Each structure stands twice: as C-alpha cells, then as structure tokens.
Amino acid sequence: MAGIVLQINVSRGGVPKRAIFEGVVTAEGLQGDSWAHPSIHGGPRQAVLILCQESIERLKELGYPVFAGALGENLTVQGIPRATLRAGQRYRAGDAILELTKLRRPCATLDVYGAGIQKHLFDAQAKAGDPGSPLWAMGGFYCSVVRGGVIRPGDPFVLLEQVA
Q: What is the rounded average pLDDT of the residues 130-138?
C-alpha cells in the first residue's frame, strides 16, 4: 500500500503548524518542530504525527475551517485509507522509516476551529481500540522514528511492514 506525503508541517508549539519545503526527521521528531505541552506531546512514541488528507476533507464538509497543518500534524498524507492504519505498521516516508504507535486523542486546543470538533475526530469505539469505528484514525496516528532521514512533499508514503 502506498500513498504520498502532501505536506510537512512544524510549529513552535500549538496549532496550526506551517508547511516547510523539506523536513529532517530524527528520533526526537521533525527538526524545527516543538510542542506547547511537552509533558503531553512528543517523546519517542509520539515523535511524529501523521494525518490523512481524507480527515481534513471530511472536517471541511462538516463546516470546520481546517487545512493541512491545522490539526497539528507533522505529515499530511494522501492515498492511505485511515481505516487501514494500525499500531505496529512501518511506513517509509522519504528517507525516514516511521512506526505507528497509537491513535491521537484530540484535545481542546483544536476548539479554535470550532467547539466540539473532537467528537468528529475520536469516539469511544476508537478509544477502545476498535478499528471498526467510523472515526478510526480521523485525528491522526502518532509514530516513533525507526530511521531518521529527509522527507519532502511528494515523497511516497509506503507501507513496509503490516501487522495482523
């Protein structure tokens, strides 16, 4: 399964993240990126946040003024059905290899785009780990960095290892 990296995003903390021409990924995450609440975000199991463009499009349909980078994701990807994302999968993005670790639970920071946006990104079924949830991975997936490297918009986002 393969998709593409549409956009690479960083910020000094908070949302939105801004697009950059190329990103360098290290074990700590994307160089130049930071978190408003490092006690909650970041760390080796949450080094990079990916989000499918499909999620952004769905939120726009619901009336939320979102765009690539708005939800705080580091990589906006397209062509990978979010319903197929699973913890333990490994993807190559440019020169980097990322391993999906856990679903992102959206917080009130995203209320800047409209009160109640979280209910369109995460539900009890997803919280219980059920990939049958209609909101599965809608808010994104955190990744650890298996191998660092350079990522550019347009790079393939390729599944390397599937999990059961």
A: 97
Q: What is the pTM of this model?
A: 0.94
For the chain, give the DSSP string.
-EEEEEEEEE-SSSSPPEEES-EEEETTEETT---S-TTTS-SGGGSEEEEEHHHHHHHHHTT----TTTT--SEEEESS-GGG--TT-EEEETTEEEEEEEE----GGGGGG-TTGGGGT--HHHHTT-TTSTTTTTT-EEEEEEE-EEE-TT-EEEEEE---
Expressed as residue numbers, the domain containing 73 is 2-161
Q: How many CA within 13 A on the CB side of residue 82? A: 29
Task: Name the one residue in this structure whose structure tokens are 């908070």.
Answer: 14
* Structure tokens given for 20: 């950059």
Over residues 116-138, the mean pLDDT reads 96
Q: Are 138 and 155 in contact (CB under 8 A)?
A: no
Domain with 101 in it: what CATH number? 2.40.33.20
